[in-house]
Design goal:
alpha+beta; five-stranded antiparallel β-sheet; 15 helices; about 20% strand
Length: about 550
């Protein structure tokens, strides 16, 4: 087929693939002792994660999540990438749960995640937490993400003004988060059309200490991405930086032939990573303060400590400011443990997670900053067991999704996870059915009571179930309640139950005729004196005998 031609008669050039140009920086801030933020950005993937839990492992949560997603940084998705981000974030959440189960000291850790995946001319977006994503497109700057915080919910419900959010005492309370939580993470997902030239800013909530209009002006006016990222972090530090701050700036552009040569980082040859025990550990990650380069250990002692970090036991936390942190004694047992028998690849050893990660990072241009960069440099990759190490390594090598990861314990965990919701659903259905049947029974009953000072017939029962009245007015008679005798008034006001409508109508008829709800009226019997058998006084037959007057019954009173 002939190529389309321009009005000048020249062939229209074919559309070139879109990629990301990028810059990233992360800083611990002025107050925090370690950096719990992590970020990765490459040509097709950008991720920012803000860990929480302090000493309980915020750095572990963010680093583990980001490092678990780096293998998505490519454009080869034959079946489409619609669910790729969501699946991978769910997998990262499962890994965090395993880490907490293995090491209870990490209990309570969690992380936010805001991620972009570029596929052809579509941008896949996933978000949970209060990290943010901003887009500058066609001169319009807008926040694409929605904060999953308590104050944002109050704003959405109209109970709080946006200007009051920054001073609210619970402004940092998250409603949704990834990590050590009972519920499955509820992600915001979207697929967006993308155009060359549009800019994105991904950041942790540490940037919130810079005014929004200042952030927008920097993104609009600063042409160089790296300069923009540096300025935004510097402005945060000038504002006091009470929290870690991480900034990723990216721009969507068409790929050019010299993109490999002008990449933001140098690609480290895989041959340089052949042996982990050599005293020169290598990383392709970029330092926040300068260009990426091969990192060499300054002496044999630091190399041994980095190697020991590789052998740290399951879920061991690391400090962003101390790459040579001592490892627990239990690392020896982890070192001695062997891979599960299902693993046949001879390269899947104790150091496989860190070695494969470094090879993966070296295979493409990228920037890695924050706690994730520290983990990659020192080799202290959060793991839970040999099986998990092998599974993650195989995933990184083959770019497989969660369905290709094998773990014999996961099917049982998945069944248990679904058991409680199923039981709860059955209980809820049983309660609803029981309430409905009870209500249906009440509607077969009738009673006579008072309505607007008149005798009335009601369908149902006279009780209430909370705010729900279990009866409705059926008919109102012309019999006034105050015209009835006292006994009849009390009966009507206390309600007279009836088996059905005919029974209720009979009760009304009795009230009208006799003043009583009962059809049988009691009769009065005069009290006749009975002569005593021992009495000797004769009683004249013609004498008038005084007798007490009878007590009137309700029926007689009505007459």
């Amino acid at each position: 087929m002939a190529s389309p031609e321009t009005p000048e008669g020249k062939e229209k050039p074919a559309e070139r693939p879109l990629i990301m140009r990028y810059a990233a920086r992360s800083d611990v801030g002025r107050i925090r002792s370690k950096n719990d933020d992590s970020a990765y950005v490459g040509r097709h993937l950008a991720v920012v994660a803000d860990g929480m839990g302090g000493h309980a492992g915020g750095d572990v949560a963010s680093a583990s999540t980001v490092l678990d997603m780096i293998h998505l940084d490519h454009d080869d998705y034959p079946d489409g990438a619609e669910t790729v981000l969501a699946d991978e974030i769910q997998t990262a959440n499962s890994l965090l749960s395993e880490l907490v189960h293995q090491n209870p000291k990490l209990s309570g850790m969690g992380t936010t995640v805001t991620a972009l995946l570029l596929e052809d001319r579509k941008l896949h977006f996933a978000h949970i937490g209060d990290s943010r994503a901003y887009r500058l497109r066609n001169k319009k700057f807008e926040q694409v993400s929605v904060d999953h915080t308590f104050v944002q919910r109050l704003i959405d419900e109209g109970r709080l003004r946006p200007e009051e959010a920054e001073t609210h005492p619970h402004k940092n309370v998250l409603m949704r988060v990834l990590g050590d939580v009972d519920a499955s993470p509820e992600l915001d997902l979207d697929v967006l059309d993308v155009e060359p030239g549009e800019r994105w800013l991904l950041c942790s909530d540490g940037l919130n200490y810079v005014a929004g209009h200042v952030v927008e002006r920097m993104v609009r006016e600063t042409k160089d991405l790296r300069e923009c990222a540096e300025i935004l972090v510097d402005l945060t530090l000038e504002a006091g930086a009470p929290d870690n701050v991480t900034v990723v700036m990216l721009e969507i552009v068409e790929e050019t032939d010299d993109d490999v040569n002008t990449a933001a980082v140098d690609v480290v040859p895989a041959a340089a990573l052949a042996a982990v025990d050599e005293p020169e550990p290598v990383t392709a990650s970029k330092s926040p303060d300068g260009p990426s380069a091969t990192r060499k250990a300054e002496d044999a002692d630091s190399a041994e400590k980095a190697k020991a970090a590789l052998e740290a036991d399951a879920g061991s936390s690391f400090s962003a400011g101390d790459p040579s942190k001592d490892v627990d004694e239990s690392a020896e047992s982890s070192k001695a443990s062997s891979e599960p028998p299902t693993t046949t690849d001879p390269h899947l050893g104790e150091h496989l997670s860190a070695e494969v990660l470094r090879e993966e990072l070296a295979s493409r241009p990228h920037e890695l900053v924050g706690a994730a960069a520290t983990a990659a440099e020192t080799g202290s990759i959060p793991t839970v067991a040999g099986r998990t190490v092998a599974r993650r390594a195989a995933t990184v090598l083959t770019h497989k999704a969660e369905q290709d990861r094998v773990d014999v314990e996961e099917p049982a965990r998945r069944r248990i996870r679904w058991l409680m919701p199923a039981v709860a659903a059955v209980v809820v259905v049983g309660v609803v059915v029981g309430l409905w049947l009870g209500y249906a029974w009440t509607q077969t009953r009738y009673y006579v009571g008072e309505y607007d000072q008149r005798v009335a017939i009601f369908n149902g029962i006279s009780q209430r179930l909370g705010p729900i009245q279990l009866s409705r007015l059926e008919a109102v008679t012309d019999i006034r309640v105050d015209s009835l005798p006292e006994y009849g008034q009390q009966s009507v006001r206390q309600t007279v139950p009836a088996g059905d409508l005919d029974d209720a109508q009979t009760i009304v008829e009795n009230l009208k005729n006799t003043g009583s709800a009962s059809a049988n009226c009691p009769t009065s019997t005069p009290a006749t004196p009975t002569p005593s058998p021992t009495s000797s006084v004769p009683v004249p037959s013609t004498a008038a005998v005084a007798t007490p007057s009878p007590v009137p019954t309700p029926c007689e009173a009505a007459k």
